[in-house]
Amino acid sequence: MKKIRITRGKIPSFWNKCFRIMKLTLLFLTIGLLQVSASVYSQTTKLTLNMRDAKVVEILDAIENQSEFRFAYSPGYIDLERILSLDVKEKTLEQCLRIIFNKTDVEYAIRDRHILLFPGAMDQGSGPVVAYSLSENSQQRTVSGTVTDSGGQPLPGVSIVIKGTTQGTVTNANGEYSLVNLPTGATLVFSFVGMRTQEITVGNQTSINITLEEDVIGLEEVVAIGYGTMERSRITSSIATVSEDQFLKGAITQSPLQLLSGKIAGLGISRSRGGDPTSSVQIQLRGVSSVRGSTSPLVIIDGIPGGDLNSIAPENIKSMDLLRDGSAAAIYGTRANAGVIIITTKQGSPGKPSVEYSSYAFTEKYFKKPRVLNADEWRHYKSEFENSSDVFLKEKGQAMLDYGFDTNWYDVISQEAISQVHDISISGGSESTQYFGSINYRDINGLVKRTGENILTERLSLTHHQLDNRLIIQLNASNALIENHAHNDEIFTQAITKNPTIPVYNSQITNPDMYGYNPAGEFFEEIGYNNANPLGLIEQFERDNQGTRFIGNAKVSYEIFDGLKASVMGAFQRYTYIYGYYESRDSWSSWTATQYNGVATRTANKGDDRTIETTLNYNKLINDDHNITALAGYSYQDFVSESMSASNRYFLSDAFTYNNLGAGLHISRGNFSSPVGSSKSTSKLIAFFGRVNYSYKDKYMMSASLRREGSSKFGKDNKWGYFPAISAGWTVSNEPFMDGLGFIDNLKLRVGYGVTGNQGIDNYLSLSRVTTSGVMLYNGEWNPGFAPASNPNPNLRWERKAETDIGLDVSMFNNININIDFYKRSTTDLLYQYAVPVPPNLYSTTWANVGEISNKGIELTFSASPVSNPKFSWYTSFNISYNKNMLESLSNEDYSHSYLMIGMPQAGRLGQSDETIYRIEEGQPLGNIYGWEHAGISEDGKWQVWNKDNTEKIHPTNATFEDRRVIGNGLPKSYFGFNNTLRYGNFDLDMTLRGALFFDILNTIMLHRLNPATLPGQTLLKTFTDPDIFALRDQRNYMDSYWVQRGDYIKLDNITFGYYIPVTNLNMKYFKQIRFFVSGSNLFCLTKYTGEDPELEIQGLSPGYDQYWNYPRTKTYTIGLNVKF
Amino acid sequence: MKKLIIRLNIFVIIVTILATPSCTNLDEEVWSAIVSEDFYKTEAELVAAMAPAYSALKDLIGGRGILIHEEQTTDILCPLTRDYGGWYDGGHSQRYHEHNWTPETGYITTWWSNAFNWVNRSNMLIFQFNQIETMDPELRATFTGELSILRAFGYYYLLSFFGNVPVVDRFDVEPGFSPSNNADFETGRKQVFDFIEKDLMDNIPNLSAAVDQTTYGRFNKWAAMTLAVKLYMGAEVWTGTPQWDKAINYANQIIESGYYQLEPDYFANFKQENDNSQENIFVVPFHETLTGGNMSNWGYVMHHHFASQATVNAPRGANNGTSAIPSHVHSFHPDDVRLKGWNYGPQIRLDNGEIQLSNRPPNNPLIFTIDYVNIFNPDDPVVRNHTNALENNGARPRKYEINYQAGQNMHNDLPVYRLADVMLLKAEALMRKNGGVATQEAVDLVNEVRSRAFEDPTGHLFTSETLTLDDILQERAWELYYEGHRRTDLIRFDKFVRGTWEFFDRSNEGDYRNVFPIPQAQINANPNLKQNPGY
After folding, report:
1. Which of A238, A373, A474, A614 sits a CA distance of 20 to 30 A from A539?
2. Full-model pTM
3. Alpha-carbon separation of residue A1094 from A125, A1107, B162 (angstroms)
4. What ipTM was assigned to the predicted interfaces of this complex?
């Protein structure tokens, strides 16, 4: 190898050549785990290479492909274009390198699996390279120093360039360098493949020692793309990756999806059910793309499509990749309309066993407790009203009974609960076989008594390499044992309306004659329509769920010849649940409402999901310029769900609860109103798919895929659908004309188009079926009836979404990353249970494909590491999205709607509502809240709304249908997240802020709970103090804009403060790492919304609807520990 | 090694091919239901297919059934709300009572679906039965005949409630078929009338005349004729042309058939075991567990008090909701036995004969008042009205015997048509035909019905000089209250939109409110539907 002269010519572009061999990010991420085995590895790994007239770079490539070795060097100093031939068999790396670099100056150092190449001329130790004199006139100095990696090891071969020139040097084998004749104020640029480039401005110092950090935000991140992985630089569609170190810190209370909270532009996440430990979170990607109730993304767990998130522990997840746009998701065709989340779980790596234990405990508090009257205030208002001259108030005062007690119903229903999570994992293995096993235990106790869940998850993964790594066998199995106790939302409806002078227990009563109550019961039950003791609703009802969720797969891949790999994967998922319900004999419902004397139900459910997928992968690099990857595959999945249930009533004792159904008398008395039932339902998905990726000189990339998939759910002639995708990328920064813009590390333009589907409907809807229905008196006998189960729709077909995405990825100054995506998605043939005319239809709704929704939006992600050194580092990222949604049409050739009306989503205490509160209309966005426009309170104290033309203020009873209008929109248009991670020495601080913008909330807590006309059934303080509300005194609440409030918010999702015990300094030889942390979640929220929490429903057709029966909103305080052995 | 690799390659290729099942069969396997093609084979299956058509008639007394529409909109029933603890549905029922309905009102939407459900089920089954070649022709004739009457029955309510609705008599329509109603309301309403008339005339001759187990709870000839009487009684309202003779003709056939007579005990028609009533012509059979349904709801739960169970044979307290309009209860003569169908005054316990106390503080004796006043504090200055009443205000219906201790539901069959109704209709038709002047035959019919209501009818009977049409309307209120006829009666007398009673004054209401608006949901789903005038 020639010694490279530093000349005025240009330095070979650093990035140009090394893209294809940069895989260092991965290396450095895992370097810690590999240390032990490294020396062993380099000696035991045998390489076989047979290459003719190959360039050095191709040979290095081949070695990387065959092994886990990765090369590091400064390209300008190594002659990569040299041609040679090589034929080695079963040789060690050392032997191979000796052959390759025979008779050259190139030296190498094997460090772990990291092979440093550097010019051998500098191996003499003392010979610093002299920089060329830039200007004879300027003041000049000499600077020298050592460059090391973060582990303190010297780095040879690091290039050091004087910024703005082509002059520079390279470190010697000891990592030393020296530059003479440096101009004052010169900036030195230290760069090395896989390390974050650093710039230092030379001042008066003569010695500059530099530590280069691993480039963790580097371009060569490997991204999951569906049926494979790919380097980020070759990706041509919109894929967001969140790896373990970026996951949301703090307690994960409900779902692994919380890990993504605030992390990805365009992904809205909402804890819509507050602190309910048995609920999940709502998730929405790029707007509402379907009018069908739920729109959850397809989850792929270790390659299993439709993986069940509840069967794995959040702690076992290594990374999550979100396929945002259609061109990325289309390979999963049928179920990918709402995006695809690819979850990669942790796997073992070769080396000594590594044991990790992590644990945290948390407690939850009310985020904002509704301000209800206490007993004293109740008595105060009672007497004030009774003594009023106002007949209305006088009447209400009299009706506000004083039971003589003092009860805070929110205190009664809530508990001081501690939840805890423990995770212990062991991983390790030999060169050929690696293992990972973990036990995870979660004991989550909600803020409300007897609400909670505990889950024990066991997981085992094995990876085995055989036949020179040509054969890889992977096994994963995870089983979760789940127990939870559900609750009845009526608890919260009652707690917010309950008179605070009522006693909780009958035992508190001294004069039983005075009050109507259930003398047999433990809990004081007030008499009246729909009145229940909230604690009774908790204590007197069993709602026990016990389940297991298993997910397991086996994958065998075999490299038939170089570049061609065949894989077969079989996967199995099963859930089984047994549910027990019991309603005590003296419970509110059994006693006052039905007199059933105890009701017991048992339900058992089982679901199986079997998958077989075969794939063929082909990878070929032609002439170093053309990289081709091809994939072909077949997928078969079937789903079976079965259930049975039985119930009985009239028990003589509560002792059995649901454990002795036969003891009830209801069935033996000859009652047949469906006390037993069972069902079974099956469906299938079959697909053929293929994909080709091509890149030319890593400048021009293209990807095309096609999936043909069939679902049993659709009409006979409509079962199969095609889901094509095509995308292309152009790495502009690899073009020669970009060389002048050295600060731009990467600039890539992406364009993609893809079609995906939605089949998320019930089975059998296309078929004409008859099922049991009613009885008929026929010749004196009661005969059972059978009737059609639904309006069949033999034309039922896919809901299709076509999406175009244009994206730009920019990396600058080696630490700033910016991604921008524009998208337009259009969903046609919307699946929905459409209202159909009656007649001719038997039922008023039919599942059909009608209409079109479009979403347009922009997503921006920005991340940077403004400070990065071993002492102090700061990583910051910000993401924001804006989405514009439009219901283009609600009609097809058969059906025609100009709008759909959505009434109150759930009947409440105020009875069922027939009134429209949301309206879905052609040419309008989804989520429109609909009603009258509030027009203030009239002089004589009456509620007013505007008439149609806004010319007259009228009383709502005189307002018409036509006076209503859109009075808000409940769907956030914009989500944002702001993440910061700071490390100082052994301390770290992590903070996630997130929020949603541009939406309104229909505050039904106010709408239903602030009506003085229904006093004394109201206890919210505002009912008694707000003069506006008193305008409703002799009226009812009307659905007008008064109850609609701006919902925009920003909240501190999580703040975590951690400390690493310096185990090496303290000589704690058995520990690799010990970390403590404290964390707080949902600590504050900035919003104008006056309800509990503006984080509400973001899915469905009535987003932004704050239900008055919601589980309380909570904030969480956590302490935790993480130990590595 | 090389050989091994080659062998392995072959092996892998074979395995891959084998593991790629050629299975592309996506036919659905149905487990918990029956695919229609495999059904309708045996007689038992055909009866089972017929059952849902009849069991759908339970909707007549359902949560949004006939009492809501025909009585809660009139001077008989009121959706009463009381102070704390009382039943309240957010004001929906009260708005309905006050005639403040809109095309979005759920009660209306539901009724459209209920009535068309009967029509659609009839159309579907007629079509299916005609397709089944193996079906016994006699059974087919019986079933399709009854189904045609069921269709006419559904259209009768649609005619009365909505007027101009689409006429559909087929099931085998193209997907997306959206039937239209007539562009002109009156013409459309007449077409509906004509369709019902044709269905009746075509099928009455083929129906069974038997009045026994074989036709109980089903449409026999007499039930169909009663429907014809009711149809022709409304002919003037619905078509502009009165058809009193036809109404009289069918009423005569029913009366003269000899199958029916007035039960000596008025309440025998509403008893728990009312299936042997001689007077009921058409009923919807209920069974406390087999049918379920809402007999207990409207028989007791909707209106009685939280503490009422000890005063009647009920297992539970009720919801303290619906009550009578005071003027209706006041209008009865005190000796009229039918007044006993309204429960007011002290509530006596069945076990010890003492007055039941309210179970709410201050535990006043439970005394239902006809008027909405505060009997415990007469000085209470608050003017009571239907939205602001006390727990004891309002008389409660107890026309249907309340007895369902064991079964959670009531056994009483719902009388839809009974002879007294037919007799009063005939009397009315005779008078109307006679220019509104009573005939002796009319007087006799009214007096026969009325005599039963008094232990000693002396002084309570009409003569041809005293009987007026308004007397007949009033008599119908006394005889047929809580059976779901009032609104149609008031419209026939042109008093529905000119009503004035307590808490309600709609003397200036537009005539258009004599029919309900076509549900907005239906108009949205079917662009060929034209909204009724005025809405």
Report:
1. A373
2. 0.82
3. 65, 11, 43
4. 0.88
